[in-house]
Amino acid sequence: MTETDSATKAVEEADVQIVELHKQPVELYKILKFEGLVGSGGEAKAVIADGHVTVNDKIETQKRKKIVAGDTIQFSGMTIRMQLAANAISDAEKQVSKPASEKNTAKKSDKKKSAKKSVTKNKTTVKG
């Protein structure tokens, strides 16, 4: 590597903003919004849909694209590199860390809710 190449690389790395993730994955539009690159979530979704955002050097149009540590986002001349914070927990780790009793309770309550909804539907549709 020549001195010019290493100088160029140093300048490129200086222009990269490091963002620490405390939870992963994070949806792409939320990163643009929380980092202040756009004024709102709606604006973030619009610029993504219009193809103005790249993730890992590819144009990304999925507004809810899951971003994890190591991903690089480019938008409006700015480059953001995602880095995992020391105390971060991923969604997969959260599922593993839950006690089995909590997992089962959540499933039972979801079933009760859906059962109540279907009963309510039947009552409202059957009119004499």
Total domains: 2
**Overall CATH class of the largest domain:** Alpha Beta
DSSP strand content = 25-35%
The sequence of SSEs as H and E is: HEEHHEEEEEHH
Please count the helical segments: 5
Q: How far apart are the first and last residues' alpha carbons, in Å? A: 84 Å
Give the spatial strand order of the biggest sheet: 1-7-6-3-4
**How would you sum up the global shape?**
globular
The CATH superfamily of the largest domain appears as: RNA-binding S4 domain
CATH architectural group of the largest domain: Roll
CATH third-level topology of the largest domain: Structural Genomics Hypothetical 15.5 Kd Protein In mrcA-pckA Intergenic Region, Chain A
Question: What is the helix content?
Answer: 40-55%
Beta strands, count: 7
Structural class by SSE content: alpha+beta
What's the story with the biggest beta sheet?
Answer: 5 strands, mixed
Mean pLDDT: 74
Which blocks of ≥5 consecutive residues have pLDDT under 50? 3-12, 114-128
Summarize the structure.
The chain is an alpha+beta fold. It has helices at residues 3-14, 28-34, 41-49, 91-97, 100-125; strands spanning 16-24, 26-27, 53-55, 58-59, 66-67, 72-75, 78-90.
